[in-house]
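pinned: reference chain
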Amino acid sequence: MASQRDIKRRITSVHNTKKITKAMEMVAAARLRRAQMRIEATRPYAVRMMEFIAGLARYIEVDRARYPLLKQHDEVRRVALVALTADRGLCGAFNSNIVRLALVFAPAFLSQGIEVDLIVVGKKGVGTFRFQNVAVAGSYVGITDRPAFLDAQALANRVAELYTTEAVDRVILIFNHFVSAMEQRVTEQVMLPLQEQVVEAYTPDGAAPHMDFLFEPQADVILNDLLPSYVEMTVYRALLESTASEHGARMTAMRNASESAGEMIDRLTLAMNRARQASITQEILEVVAGADALS
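pinned: its C-alpha cells
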C-alpha cells in the first residue's frame, strides 16, 4: 500500500490537473460560442449561393465543357484529398477521425490505380501523416484557430488551379461538420467538379427554374465569375465548421477529463483515509503490545 505522503502528493497533482482542464473547458466554451455564431451566419449565405448557381446553371442550360470548374474530366487518374485537422490537440478523437478517414480513402484510390495528392490543414494532421510516412503534397498550418476568408481563398485557389489545369481530376474535402458541442460528424464532400446531383438537389424537378432577372453582364459571364467564389465559400464554410467542431470536441474532452479527475481524487482520498486508519490501528497495537510487555 502506498504511504500517506505519496497518496497526498498524487491528490495534489490531480487537483492541479483538474484546475487546468476546467480552465481549458471554459476557454473552449467561450471560443465555441464565437465559432458557432460565425458558422450560423455563414451557412445561409453558402446555401443561397449554391441555390443561385444551381438555378443559373439550369436557367441558361450551361454547357459544362465551357466552364473548367464544372467540366467533368473524362477519366479520373488523380484525386486531391483535402483533410482539415486542427493545430492543437486535447480535443478527443477530432483529429484522429479525419486522419483515419483519409487513410481509408487513399489506399482505396491507389488500389484502383488512381494517384492521390494529400493536402492537409492543421499541425496535428501534418505531424501525424509525416510520422506515418504518408507523403503530403501541401500543408497549411496556423489558420484553424480563427480562420479568415483570406486563408480559405489561398486554399481554394490552390485546389481550383490544380483542377482547372487538370493536375487532378477530382477534389474531395474531408472535415468535421458541426452539429452540436457534443456531436461532430465527419464529412467527405466532392468539391470539384460541381456535382450534377448537387445542382439537382437545388432544382429537384429537373426543370429550369423561373428567374425573372435582367442580367448585366450576360448570365454565363456571371456564372463564370461566381464559380470561383463558390469554391472559396465552400472551403471557408468547411474551415468554420471544423473550427466550431474543434472547440466543441475540446470542451467535451476537457469536461470529461475534469470529471475523471474528480473521481480519481475521491478514490485517492478514500485510499488515504484507509492508509491513515491502518497507521492509527498499527500505532494502537504497538502501544497495547508495549503495555502488555511492561506488565
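why pinned: The chain has a mean pLDDT of 85. The radius of gyration is 28 Å.
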